[in-house]
Structures are given as structure tokens and as C-alpha cells.
Design goal:
The complex is a heterodimer of chains A (221) and B (210). Chain A has 221 residues and is an all-alpha fold. Chain A has one domain. Chain A contains ten helices and no strands. The two termini of chain A are 24 Å apart. Chain B has 210 residues and is α/β, with parallel strands linked by helices. In chain B, strands 6-7-8-3-9-10 form a six-stranded mixed sheet, sandwiched between helices. A four-stranded antiparallel sheet of chain B has the order 2-1-4-5, with helices on one face. Classes of the chains: A mainly alpha (221), B alpha/beta (210). Bound molecules: adenosine-5'-diphosphate and magnesium ion.
């Protein structure tokens, strides 16, 4: 079933690829950013004094929802048909987590062809691969955090509200980075060791919160 | 499958939506639930399916208590509301996705059922473009396709044309013959008269005598 869901959103990855390509193109041609910095902006919204860069980050958080929405809808809204077949909420919960991890991973992987299409193969020469990987892993953790927030909100609210909530959340986290909490917050790479542990901690907390909420939720709409 | 409802009460906010329900449902029978809108038919079906939790009382399925020993009845097909599932997939893709979970039914069988209901398995249209009646057919197919021992059907005949209604009657009577338990609601006296061995009347969350 996981593969069927992932397979059914191919077009969303293509759309994400196009979006990423355009974003990188703009960052490269207009703002003249290096490759790694562009990826960092996409994932972190650093250098937030420019509204263009804020927009890029908010776009990323929206794309995470966009690719995840099917799985979340199916498991949390139309779930009775799925639920009675899996026989337990726990299985459904774990399945949803597995799908989210896979879907987010693929989204972050989509960045690679987008880099190629906008920066070209030459950009990879003399690149600090370790640094880029760090940024990508950070981006992946961040997208998992946002997906879990999405799950938590979806249990409680309508879809439109959730999307609005997610935008607010993205803007808020940029606000954090502006007042300097970015150094210790989940924005990766500055202090790679600390920030990743904090990421994991946040993921763990969200994981428990979403399980508690889903477990308590009754199947009435 | 034998289902026993004991002193079941469910409150939502200050409203008592199920009020001290007692009932027994057995194999080889079709049960009909009747009552005006808002009388609690859907809520009772949800209770039987383990989809809500009681404030008092319990539901026992073949000796096992729902929400305690098991979460849901073991072999159950259900339709409550018209399922939307994934709007951008075709009917067949949606059914296959659900069938993937338990792997009890082959793609050939799903296609066969779709054809029985006058749906074309090769139809490229996605579920979002289906008419209400077509969605309802998909709903019925997903409920029966895994040949469950218990069928819980909330207004299954909604939006169906006459021909399909009669087809479903036939299928349900076949199910009954095979020893299954069927519980359904309908606003049409004809469905109830044609199918049901027992009729339960609901009024403001209570089971009442006719
Ligand atoms: N999600 C819900 N939250 C609160 N009350 C509900 C909900 N769904 C139904 N109810 C209430 O429960 C009662 C029974 O509803 P329902 O079982 O849907 O009736 P029926 O199926 O007989 O038309 C109604 O008074 C309805 O307002
Ligand atoms: Mg109803």
C-alpha cells in the first residue's frame, strides 16, 4: 500500500522538482548564491532579511504538506476503511509514519535533479559534499518535523486551517531565527551536532503527541 | 458472527446519542435499523463497528469485548457515508489500494465485482469525477469484496438506481445464506421488507418497540 500511495503522487514530485528548479534558478541568477547556500535557504530560510528568501522557505514547508496530504487524509480522515483492515490504530499510526518518512525522503532527494537542472553538472565540482549532505539531512529532519505537525493539526482541525497553521508556523520559525535562536534551534549546519539532536528530540515529542491524539480520537466526523 | 450490545450509552457533549442500548445480532440474519434522521442509527452502527467508545456498557463480538480484547470485529465489511478515498485515483486503483492491506482478494475478483455493478474497471476517470451513485457502488464493493463475516451498511442503497438496488439485494441474501451477519439502515420500506428478518426501531438514541 505504501508503494501505491507513493506511486500515486508522482505528479506531485514532478511539480516539486519544477518548483525547486525555479527557486534555484532565481537564487543563482538573481541573488547569486552558491549551490550549498541555495539549498540551505530552501530548507532554513536563513538570511531572512529578504522577503524573497522567506518566501522560498515557506514554499518548502508548503510542498511538504502538498506531498504528504494524501497519506494523511487517507489515514486520518477517510480512515475507517483503512482502519478496520489494519485492525489496530497502532498499525495505522506506524504505517502513516513509515509513509511520511518515505515521502519526505523522496521530496528531499528531488532537490538533486533540481540542482542539476539549474546549476548544471559543473556546480558539483569542488563541492564540499559533506557540508551539502549535512544540509540535506537537516532538511529531511525539518520536513519530518513539519509533517508530524501537520498530522497533529489534522487530527484536530480542518484541512484549510491546517495549511494556514503551517504557513504561520514557518513564519514563526523564521522569526525565531531572526532573534538568534537559530543557532540552537533545529536549523541545521551552524552547529550540526546540537541542532540534529534537538531535531530528534522535537520529532520524538511530536511522535508521542500525535500518537496520543490519534489514539484518543474517535471515528466520528 | 454473534454481536451482543449490553447497556450501551454514548454521550457527546451534553447530548445522549445512544441511550442504554441492548440488542443481540446473530449469524444467518439480516437486521434492519429504522428511525427518523438523527435518531442514532449511524451512531449505533459505529458502536457495533468499534469506531466509537461507550460511556457505559459494551459490545461483545464472539465473546470478545470491543475496545478491550479487540479493536474491531475480526472480519467486517462496512460502509458508513459515501467513501471518498483518494480523489485523484481511479475506482479500481482505490479498491486495489484497500485490497493491498489484507491481500484477501485478487484484482480479477475486484474487476469482476466492478463489472457486476456496471462499472468499467478500465475506466480512466478518477474518483473525484464519479457521480454519487458510482461512488456508492465503490463503497459497496469495498465492503463486500473481502467476503467478511459481518456486514455493517449505513444507507447502502442511497443514490443507487433501481437495477443496482435489486442486484445488491441479491448479493446480500447470498451473504445471509452463507451464514453471515448483516446489519443495515434504510429509509425505504421496500428494502427493509425484502431483506430483513428482524427490524429494530430507533427513537432519540433508544431502541423502541414499533
Ligand atoms: N460528530 C458528531 N458530533 C456530535 N454529535 C453528533 C455527531 N454525529 C452525530 N451526532 C448526533 O448524534 C445523533 C444521532 O445521529 P445519527 O446517528 O447520525 O442519526 P441517524 O443516522 O439516525 O440519522 C444526532 O442527534 C446527531 O446530531
Ligand atoms: Mg445516518
Amino acid at each position: 500500500m505504501t508503494l501505491r500511495i507513493v506511486n500515486s503522487i508522482k505528479h506531485k514530485y514532478f511539480f516539486s522538482f519544477l518548483t525547486f528548479s525555479i527557486v534555484f534558478m532565481v537564487l543563482k541568477e538573481v541573488e547569486e548564491y552558491e549551490l550549498t547556500d541555495s539549498v540551505r535557504i530552501l530548507f532554513n530560510g536563513i538570511n531572512v532579511r529578504k522577503s524573497l528568501l522567506i518566501a522560498v522557505f515557506v514554499l518548502f514547508t508548503l510542498l511538504i504538506q502538498y506531498v504528504n496530504v494524501d497519506a494523511v487524509r487517507l489515514f486520518l480522515r477517510e480512515d475507517i476503511y483503512v482502519l478496520i483492515r489494519y485492525k489496530s490504530k497502532k498499525t495505522v499510526f506506524l504505517k502513516l509514519q513509515a509513509i511520511i518518512l518515505l515521502v519526505d525522503f523522496l521530496l528531499v532527494v528531488t532537490v538533486a535533479p533540481a540542482i542539476l537542472s539549474s546549476y548544471g553538472i559543473n556546480a558539483f565540482r569542488g563541492l564540499n559534499v559533506a557540508e551539502l549532505m549535512g544540509v540535506l539531512i537537516g532538511g529531511f529532519l525539518l520536513s519530518v518535523i513539519y509533517s508530524l505537525l501537520f498530522v497533529v493539526l489534522t487530527v484536530k482541525c480542518s484541512e484549510t486551517r491546517v495549511f494556514v497553521g503551517m504557513i504561520a508556523m514557518a513564519l514563526l520559525s523564521i522569526g525565531y531565527s531572526r532573534i538568534g535562536i537559530a543557532e540552537i534551534s533545529f536549523f541545521p549546519n551552524r552547529d550540526a551536532f546540537n541542532s540534529k539532536w534537538i531535531c530528534f528530540l522535537i520529532i520524538l515529542i511530536l511522535y508521542f503527541v500525535s500518537w496520543k491524539l490519534i489514539n484518543k480520537k474517535e471515528e466520528i466526523k | 458472527m454473534r454481536i451482543e450490545v449490553r447497556d450501551y450509552t454514548k454521550r457527546i457533549g451534553s447530548a445522549t446519542v445512544l441511550d442504554n442500548i441492548n440488542a443481540i445480532f446473530e449469524s444467518n440474519k439480516v437486521y434492519g435499523l429504522v428511525g427518523v434522521n438523527g435518531s442514532g442509527k449511524t451512531m449505533l452502527l459505529r458502536a457495533l463497528a468499534g469506531l466509537i467508545r461507550p460511556n457505559e456498557g459494551k459490545v461483545i463480538v464472539d465473546g470478545q469485548e470491543l475496545n478491550k480484547d479487540i479493536s474491531f470485529p475480526n472480519s467486517m465489511g462496512i460502509i458508513i457515508e459515501t467513501p471518498d478515498l483518494l480523489g485523484h485515483l481511479t475506482g479500481l486503483e482505490n479498491l486495489k489500494m484497500l485490497a493491498d492491506i489484507q491481500r484477501k482478494v485478487s484484482t480479477e475478483r475486484i474487476c469482476e465485482l466492478m463489472e457486476t455493478f456496471g462499472l468499467d474497471p478500465k475506466d480512466k476517470r478518477v474518483l473525484r469525477k464519479y457521480s454519487l451513485g458510482m461512488k456508492q457502488k465503490i463503497g459497496i464493493i469495498q465492503a463486500i469484496m473481502e467476503d467478511p463475516e459481518l456486514l455493517i451498511l449505513d444507507e447502502p442503497f442511497n443514490a443507487l438506481d433501481r437495477e443496482t438496488v435489486e442486484k445488491v439485494w441479491g448479493i446480500l441474501l447470498e451473504f445471509k445464506k452463507k451464514g453471515k451477519t448483516i446489519i443495515l439502515t434504510s429509509h425505504h420500506k421496500e428494502d427493509i421488507d425484502n431483506l430483513c428478518d428482524e427490524v429494530l426501531f430507533m427513537e432519540e438514541g433508544r431502541l423502541v418497540l414499533p
